[in-house]
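Dear support,

We are seeing what looks like truncated structure output for some complexes. This example has two components. We would appreciate it if you could run it in full and send us the complete token output so we can diff it against ours.
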Amino acid sequence: MACEIRQPGLATTVQDLGRIGHYALGFPQGGAMDQESARLANALVGNGPEAAVLECAYMGPVIGVTAPIDIAVAGAPIEVRVNGEPRPAWTRLRLEAGDELSFGVIQGGTRFFIALRGGIDVPLALGSRSTYAIGGIGGVDGRALRAGDVLDTLAPTRPLPAMDTIAEADRPVFSREQEVRIMFGLYDHLLSGEGRRRLVEEDWTLTPTADRMGLRYSGPGVEWREREQPFGAGQDPSNIVDAGYAVGSIQIPGGTQPIVLHRDAVSGGGYAMVATVISADMDLVARAAPGTRTRFVPVDMGGALAARAERRSRIARIVTTLGAD
Amino acid sequence: MTSVSMAPARLTWGGDEFLFAEIDEAMGLAANFRAMTIARGLTERALPGVIDICPANASLLVRFDPDALDAGVLEATVREIEAGATEAADEFRTRIIEVPVWYDDPFTAETAARFREGYHQDPSSGDLDYAARVNGLGDKAEFIRRHHSQPWLVSMVGFVAGLPFLYQLVDRDQQLEVPKYLSPRTDTPRLTLGHGGCFGAIYSVRGAGGYQMFGVVAPPIYQPEQTLPDFVDSSVLFRAGDIVRFRPVDEAEYHRIQDEVEAGTYRYRQAPVTFSLGASLADPLAANRTMIEVLDGM
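Here is the complete output from our reference environment:
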């Protein structure tokens, strides 16, 4: 036994890289919303990328430590406290039995991650430890943590890295303004020219309606081309015959508020997707707090793949700098 | 062998990890069949880097790892399979499953009563009465008869884990069509038999939903504990391409089935069948009879 949950926080779940390969049966990919922060928290305690961490939204848990353990907190700016005393985030912390880990108020962004050395030991469900609450699988009994839950860790498989902190310059930025790169496609031909222009040339503001399933933005709205709705599609111009949804795709029900589908989104439905956030920027979207002013910037496949490679080598460089692998 | 001529699918990208193929803008049996044919072809190729192959009602979504599989190679492969699809056999082996439904049940009626004003097109009437009226049928009993008199095809699985979309195997002018709720409910009982547009659905888990509610399916269709015999290999019952025949049950039988589920002994009645696109398009009722005879002969 490594620790016990004294207060669960607002929505604390076990997450890992995600449940990949079961989308055709309606299982969302899941996984840590901000994969880069989760990866760096894991690297600080010598975990591989596959280790499960705790994802905490807005208000963190209070955790009682029952056996000595190394932990690290990364992600949205948050005051970390051990026995009430402030301790640094983005840094490995050694906790002793009897210590209590708690958190202050989030200073930006939405989610932070707690990595425990060895990774959280919950059973694999369809190849992943990620919590899928709607389907009742993964994590602790397929749900968010509750007071009284006890967490164990797996045996570490590699040594602790030489360094114990991530340099300031290597930490992600949590800003109230974002440029999110998207690729047009899917059903973008249903937008009018003006609708298309507004999506990428106007500002959109993240509303409080944002969670692991999706993030809803307010702004000037879009316009659709006039067309006769095909059989089975439904009457609104934003309706299509129900189809699979790309993770990261943007739908605009009724043409008013764009929704970016994130890691726990439904796998399909009847709203036209008009663009998709590129894979390299999904972490960025996950960091947005309500009120974040957002500009969607169109790129092509080449741009998306270059950004993907850049992200991968950046994370690899930071992990290597730590002395982790 | 009947080949149905179709325009090439519209291929487009969902970011750098998804290829989307729209077979047809409109729902139809031939489009669904084509989506499943391409999905099967792609599964057989077993291209390294293909992660998910998701056939949908009239489209197909493929997730891939662009670090392992060049997007252009994937696109060319889908085109190649599609080009071969017109020569491919127009039939596939599947199964017909009997699904017991308590139509006009108290659970969905109670939920419907909580979501009327501001949610429903006709707050003063129930979902079944409304569905009967907009389809020009005499009463809800007639609507229920039409609903279970002909089988349905699982045209897609998704939305949430294990939820089947269902398309009734009848001519387009015989399709039951009902609009979705004006605004989605925040609650739908688990195993609700729903309907939106021309599609039926069974809600595998409790949650939000916008489909009209007609009844409740008696046994589970998603069982993460995997204790029932039908769920030993997968927590999800349905696969795209399954044929579903609804059988109305009354309250007493509904409770008997609950007891069997509780005891871990319940099994769905099912039989292997061949589904033929050509036969179904030419004379759906005759093709349905053939499949139902196989089930009833079990």
